[in-house]
Amino acid sequence: MIQSASTSTNLTSVRSIFKSLLYLAIGLIIGIEFTLVVFNQTDQCHRIITIQETPPKVNNEGSPISDPAVFQQNIWKNDANEQNSDDNIIEYLFNTTRVLCWIMTQPDYHQSRAIHIRNTWGRRCNTLLFMSSQSDETLPSIALPVEEGPDHLWNKTRLALKYIYDYHLNDADWFLKADDDTYVVMENLRMFLHGYSADDPLYFGCKVKRPEEPEFMSGGAGYVLSKHALVKFANEAYNNSELCDQLETDENMGLSKCLRNIDVIAGDSRDDELKERFIPLAPIHVIPDFKMEWYDSDIYHSANETVSCCSPYAVSFHYTDWREFYTLDYLLYSLRPFGVYSNVSWKLPDSWEINNEVI
């Protein structure tokens, strides 16, 4: 009886151990599966792809020279399946209206400004490039052979556009320039551009005017060139000082004169209610009312007293502090007021012909 009791006790102990091991195994399997799901979703949010191919070194005119590259072609690049959206229209636009974003920055602002674009709205570009005068692997940035400072911005812009033409022409349909203190809503940009053909010579932005230049785009609000416009710039204007003044110091005026001379159309980017999409000021400077006196006098289209500042489909805001990048990202992509957006229509805009008056 004693032996039988001992055997029974041993069997009970074995069953208990077996059950504990079984529960542990099940728990580990569940834990591993959950971890894999989390890591897969995290990896889909963003990733850095470093292209090892090294472009040739270029001189101040952007022409290749024999020495091996100063540029390492490092790109922050997304794939279409990385766009996690409840609506397939976001993925559709990501695939059909590809946008390369290039950010005008400088070494002093790599870590205080540019890196925060990489961490926020820049992740939603098809390709993201940082144009600087020094390389920085943490962004990464492209070192253009140019001096820094406001008097060199036009030359820096010329070199950046030529570089993109040489190495990234087929990576996108549209090419967006933004400053390192500009916030861009990429979904609204793609929605707007979807109605136009990248095969037409067009560019869009915030159109402003000055006595010395009746029409140009504000660089701070960002401007976007079609592929055809970029090709025309590189082939017709880049090395032609009569069409494209290489001694100009003002980036905005230099680009507008250059593109106008090669018949690139400066399009009207306002929405159906004549509200601006590209805003050359920060949200705090225009809502609830404008706080910059120059805006009313410089804006190309006369302000209508019945029209408020910004389109509900605004594309960009300038003079945005890096902290506001994260705030805007939260407000746009995380905050969900219950029931507010349940009846929103996602109809895409009609396509426009190049001779349409709206352009």
UniProtKB/TrEMBL annotation:
GO cellular component: a single term: membrane
UniProt name for this protein: Glycoprotein-N-acetylgalactosamine 3-beta-galactosyltransferase 1
Entry function: Glycosyltransferase that generates the core 1 O-glycan Gal-beta1-3GalNAc-alpha1-Ser/Thr (T antigen), which is a precursor for many extended O-glycans in glycoproteins.
Subcellular location: Membrane
Chief subcellular location: membrane
Record-listed E.C. numbers: 2.4.1.122
Keywords: Disulfide bond, Glycoprotein, Glycosyltransferase, Manganese, Membrane, Metal-binding, Nucleotide-binding, Signal-anchor, Transferase, Transmembrane, Transmembrane helix
Family (UniProt): Belongs to the glycosyltransferase 31 family. Beta3-Gal-T subfamily.
Gene3D superfamilies per record: 3.90.550.50
UniProt cofactor(s): Mn(2+)
EC primary class: transferase
Residue stretches making up the Fringe-like glycosyltransferase domain: 99-261
Gene name of this polypeptide: 101888647
Membrane protein topology class: Single-pass type II membrane protein
Keyword presence, Ribosomal protein: no
GO MF annotations in UniProt: glycoprotein-N-acetylgalactosamine 3-beta-galactosyltransferase activity; manganese ion binding; nucleotide binding
InterPro entries in alphabetical order: C1GALT1/C1GALT1_chp1 (IPR026050), Fringe-like_glycosylTrfase (IPR003378)
Subunit structure: Homodimer; disulfide-linked.
One Pfam family of this chain: Fringe
Transmembrane segments: 21-39
